Amino acid sequence: DTAVSQTPKYLVTQMGNDKSIKCEQNLGHDTMYWYKQDSKKFLKIMFSYNNKELIINETVPNRFSPKSPDKAHLNLHINSLELGDSAVYFCASSPTGGLAGVQETQYFGPGTRLLVL
Amino acid sequence: AQSVTQLGSHVSVSEGALVLLRCNYSSSVPPYLFWYVQYPNQGLQLLLKYTSAATLVKGINGFEAEFKKSETSFHLTKPSAHMSDAAEYFCAVSEGSTGTASKLTFGTGTRLQVTL
Prior knowledge:
The complex is a heterodimer of chains A (117) and B (116).
Chain A: E1 4-7, E2 10-13, E3 19-25, E4 31-37, E5 43-50, E6 53-57, E7 64-70, E8 73-78, E9 87-94, E10 107-108, E11 112-116
Parallel strand pairs in A: 2-11
Antiparallel strand pairs in A: 1-3, 3-8, 4-5, 4-9, 5-6, 7-8, 9-10, 9-11
Chain B: E1 3-5, E2 10-14, E3 19-21, E4 24-26, E5 32-38, E6 44-50, E7 56-58, E8 64-68, E9 73-78, E10 87-94, E11 105-106, E12 110-115
């Protein structure tokens, strides 16, 4: 059974296009995240949602808009794609986001490899 | 603010040799520390985590890490490397949840190469 799944696995598109990446988790978790991994393998958090509410927004350009229709899904829509958006995007989830001061494990999806030409 | 430094972007060991991947952290509060492994073209898999229960943490696949507060380190070790250990390893730190979300800060990763 897949815990955190992402679609598509690969995405090749032209500059200026709009694209979406979907993420679903069947772990019953309340909190979901989007991370970006650049060409040098550096991983950085972009967004976090808890029960459909935006909690973390790490100075990501407005062209990136996350949407959470329910707590099991967190989609990422990207407008006007740029060359610099080429990266691997990882979705993750954690049980409740944690009691204040407690750190729960985050479970990662397989990643979506985005290439902007 | 929290941060992680992984010394050595690339480590090469012989099969059967000791694996040592270094991680130093910076945190304003007692940290939570993680090691994740990423195999080629795959997502991140949790190897082990430190949550203050014990300073020596054992993980999957024979890996372990020791939390040393005095050295602000959380180095990952394995007594005997196997070819299947070849992957990218990431150290991550968190200062804990705000109650609704938590922020992991990752190091830049160390690529482990295992040779015959």
